[in-house]
Amino acid sequence: MVEDYLRTLFCLSARGDTTSTSALARCLHLATPTVSGMHRRLAGAGLIARPGLHRVTLTAHGGRHAVDVVRRNRLAKVFLAEFLGMSWSEIGAEADVLEHAISPRLASRLTAALGNPTRDPYGNPIPPATGDYVEAWPESLRAAVPCRDFTVERVVDRDIDGLRLLAGLGVYPGRVIARAEASPQGGEVCVDIEGHPHELAAAVGGLIYGRAA
């Protein structure tokens, strides 16, 4: 559970999302009191800091641990997709289990066997085995300027239904889509994919990150 917590906190922080106790509890599918107890435990171990009542951050020590977990997790996703042919709506949950069984030696062997991949199937960079690593996310599709082409670079991998929908539309990293106006009713994001208009729910549009042309 500690590794899952550190990875989740790292990913939320990198995207600029809230790192409140309730947000972490939702992502980890745990009760809020359980996460609060984890806060105390990890703060005592010097892995996290609590600069505010509703905010948690990784310490330098915790950040190093988190990056190692993220590396193993993303290597596992590449393995599951490329060697086992699993769909990207499946590999997230399986990688969350597999990451805990990957030793440093196995991670090195996996990296070589996979051809030294630089990104996982969702477009997430794979951190190096050593050295500093800072992760920056590109622009969200929801925040992109309308009526311009938008190249998908990364997709958030924590919404299985959303991933299935995007896969069905062919929206993968590297795909260029056209961003249209947001719907005034519910914040839906209107896009054009190969000449076909589609209206994405706000939550699904929020999974897509990239850059405008």
Automatic annotation (TrEMBL):
<keyword id="KW-0678">Repressor</keyword>
<keyword id="KW-0238">DNA-binding</keyword>
<keyword id="KW-0010">Activator</keyword>
<dbReference type="InterPro" id="IPR022687">
    <property type="entry name" value="HTH_DTXR"/>
</dbReference>
<protein>
    <recommendedName>
        <fullName>Manganese transport regulator</fullName>
    </recommendedName>
</protein>
<dbReference type="InterPro" id="IPR036421">
    <property type="entry name" value="Fe_dep_repressor_sf"/>
</dbReference>
<keyword id="KW-0804">Transcription</keyword>
<keyword id="KW-0805">Transcription regulation</keyword>
<dbReference type="GO" id="GO:0045892">
    <property type="term" value="P:negative regulation of DNA-templated transcription"/>
</dbReference>
<dbReference type="GO" id="GO:0046983">
    <property type="term" value="F:protein dimerization activity"/>
</dbReference>
<dbReference type="GO" id="GO:0046914">
    <property type="term" value="F:transition metal ion binding"/>
</dbReference>
<feature type="domain" description="HTH dtxR-type">
    <location>
        <begin position="1"/>
        <end position="59"/>
    </location>
</feature>
<dbReference type="InterPro" id="IPR050536">
    <property type="entry name" value="DtxR_MntR_Metal-Reg"/>
</dbReference>
<comment type="subunit">
    <text>Homodimer.</text>
</comment>
<dbReference type="Pfam" id="PF01325">
    <property type="entry name" value="Fe_dep_repress"/>
</dbReference>
<dbReference type="GO" id="GO:0005737">
    <property type="term" value="C:cytoplasm"/>
</dbReference>
<dbReference type="GO" id="GO:0003677">
    <property type="term" value="F:DNA binding"/>
</dbReference>
<keyword id="KW-0963">Cytoplasm</keyword>
<dbReference type="InterPro" id="IPR036388">
    <property type="entry name" value="WH-like_DNA-bd_sf"/>
</dbReference>
<dbReference type="GO" id="GO:0003700">
    <property type="term" value="F:DNA-binding transcription factor activity"/>
</dbReference>
<keyword id="KW-0464">Manganese</keyword>
<dbReference type="InterPro" id="IPR001367">
    <property type="entry name" value="Fe_dep_repressor"/>
</dbReference>
<dbReference type="Pfam" id="PF02742">
    <property type="entry name" value="Fe_dep_repr_C"/>
</dbReference>
<dbReference type="InterPro" id="IPR036390">
    <property type="entry name" value="WH_DNA-bd_sf"/>
</dbReference>
<comment type="similarity">
    <text>Belongs to the DtxR/MntR family.</text>
</comment>
<dbReference type="InterPro" id="IPR022689">
    <property type="entry name" value="Iron_dep_repressor"/>
</dbReference>
